[in-house]
Amino acid sequence: MRILVLSDTHIPVAARDLPREIYKAIEGVDMIFHAGDFIDAGVFERLRSLKEIKAVRGNMDSEELSSMLNTKETITIEKFKIGLIHGYGAPSEIMQTVRREFDRIDVLVFGHSHAAMNLKKDGVLYFNPGSPTDRIFASKNSYGILEVTDKKIEGSIVEL
Questions:
Q1: Lower CB density within 10 Å: C or N end of the chain?
Q2: 146 vs 129: CA distance, rounded Å
Q3: Going from the N-terminus, what domains does the chain have, and what CATH number goes with each?
Q4: H-type alpha helices, 84-125
């Protein structure tokens, strides 16, 4: 299974729409994860019309989105437990902050810092796709791909 991972899309504040490359990449995946800060519910609805989506709310999301989405989700794919959360607090402490939110997980997908991360630590894959539209705290825009098989789960960051 291939999962396209987004966070911090900040539409329409940072951009009018997602980059075209994202829509092209969606054609080749099975599912979408979004770790919050859509800002506008229209982005969520558009993505949901294209593929199955698992999403959480971020600190910048509209009231409409905040009423539709949870703060965090635990998703099981194959034998892997994946924690999905936006995150909060200082970007320098984001890994510790989001880790405290989940018990036994294999992958922790988060956003908030806008800085892409694909790091395995203490048996957990910490995966932040960065932002495809905003470069605060990051030198490049990006999104992520998670590849899941029955034996392993791996992430990759795609720079835009």
A1: N
A2: 10
A3: 2-159 (3.60.21.10)
A4: 94-99
Give the pLDDT confidence of 46-63 residue by residue, as tens digits.
Answer: 999 999 999 999 999 999
Distance CA 9, CA 92 (A): 20
Contacts of 98 (CB under 8 A, 6+ apart): 83, 85, 87, 108, 110
3-state helix, strand, coil in the chain (%, to 5): 20, 35, 45
How many residues are there in the chain?
160
The pLDDT assigned to 134 comes to 86
Region 35-44: mean pLDDT is: 94
Yes or no: say if 10 and 133 are a contact pair by the CB < 8 Å rule.
Answer: yes
On whether the CB atoms of residues 104 and 122 are closer than 8 A, the answer is: no
